[in-house]
Amino acid sequence: MAFDYRSLRGKIKELYGTQDKFAKALGIGRVSLSQRLNNILEFSQEEIQRSCELLKFPKDEIPKYFFNMKVHKDERNNVH
C-alpha cells in the first residue's frame, strides 16, 4: 500500500524550507524522513502526532497528510 505525501511535502516546505530541517525537528535523520516520504518505511504513530504539532495542523487533518492513497495511472488509458 503506497501513500501520496505531496500535501505533507508541501507543508514541510512551507514551514521548514527543507526536509532536513523538518527531520531534525522531528528527531529523525534526513534519510529516515526520505524513506518514509517515499513509502519505503512507515511513519510511526508518535511521528505522526509530532508532525501535527510541528506543522501546526489539527489532528482531524491527519488523513489528508498521511493517508492519501497513491493513485497509479493506468497506461492503457493513454492511447491516442
From TrEMBL:
InterPro entries: Cro/C1-type_HTH, DUF739, Lambda_DNA-bd_dom_sf
Matching CDD domains: HTH_XRE (cd00093)
GO molecular function: DNA binding
Alphabetized Gene3D superfamilies for the sequence: lambda repressor-like DNA-binding domains (1.10.260.40)
Signal peptide, first to last residue: none
Ranges for domain HTH cro/C1-type: 8-62
Matching Pfam families: DUF739 (PF05339)
Name of the protein: HTH cro/C1-type domain-containing protein
